[in-house]
Amino acid sequence: ILYNTAVERVMEDSGRAVGVRLENGEVISADYVISDAYGYDTFKKLIDDRHLTDRLRSMYSKPIDRMMMALHVSFGVKMDLSDRPNAFSLFLDEPIEIAGDNCSIVNVINYSYDKKLSPEGKTSLKVMYDTYFSYWEELSKDQKKYEEEKEKIANRTIEAIERFIPGIRAAVEVTDVATPLTTKKFTSNARGYGSKEEFRLRDTLKGFLNKPMTLKTLKNFFVIGHSIGGTNLYGCAAMGRNAVKKICKKEKKDFYSS
Predict the structure, then answer these.
(1) DSSP bridge partners of 33
(2) pLDDT in tens, the chain (258 residues)
(3) Whether 73 and 136 share a structural domain
(4) Are both 70 and 171 inside the same structural domain?
């Protein structure tokens, strides 16, 4: 495992993936390459365009702007909310403005079911909103405005929750707002498909089967992860597992799992 190390290109020879080239110029040879990077980055940056099918080329021709659940607002509160559901939706009489959108429903994730996520008598909460990548990209040009907008969103969110859980605003001890740019900064994952309409039903069904994606013109190369059809964490993990299983079969080795 190499931390703080970015892959610049998948190396290939005679139609086969043979390793990766890092941003620092170092080349790491490999018999197989499995990309768990975001689909857009994998297909538009790491491999040659000639390997893409017309459908993949169309899907990734332009990153989406409207992103689902991409704005995360988290709170650490000095309240025991274990009597509340693990997830609940708050329907507001008066909508609140979140990143330029009017929001009338606040969906709250309550992590009190896991005692490791907060000290005794306290609770971790998170609210996720849909948002536009371009909104935050433009706002980030002025760091002061960017930070002010995050603070406003945190305040409006906790005020909305206060309508249903009196006293929670005063109980907030920790606040964190993660935007799509935060995700890009820490994980290099930014955007997905060029059009939501191009994500077909069969792609979703394929994700339920948890099969890694392969390309006809680039052998020994697998693509896994949420952005190409993995369903939740366990589905993405199964995609990686099945990629290794395919490699074992090709190498005529037994595949074992616990």
Answers:
(1) 221
(2) 998 888 999 999 999 999 999 999 999 999 999 999 888 889 989 999 999 989 888 887 777 788 888 999 999 999 999 999 999 999 999 999 999 999 999 999 999 999 899 999 999 999 999 999 999 999 999 999 999 999 999 999 999 999 999 999 999 999 999 999 998 888 777 665 444 444 455 555 555 567 899 999 999 999 998 777 777 778 888 899 999 999 999 999 999 987
(3) yes
(4) yes
Which residues form the domain of 82? Answer: 66-187
- Same-domain status, 120 and 16: no
Overall size of the chain counted in residues: 258
Q: Is the CA virtual torsion 241, 114, 85, 90 positive or negative?
A: negative
Phi, psi of 56 (to 5 degrees): -65, -40
| Residue 1 domain flag | no
Determine contact, residues 46/7, Cβ cutoff 8 Å.
yes
| C-alpha to C-alpha distances, 193 to 37, 44, 170, 180, 208, nearest whole angstrom | 14, 11, 41, 15, 19
Residues 6+ apart with CB under 8 A from 57: 49
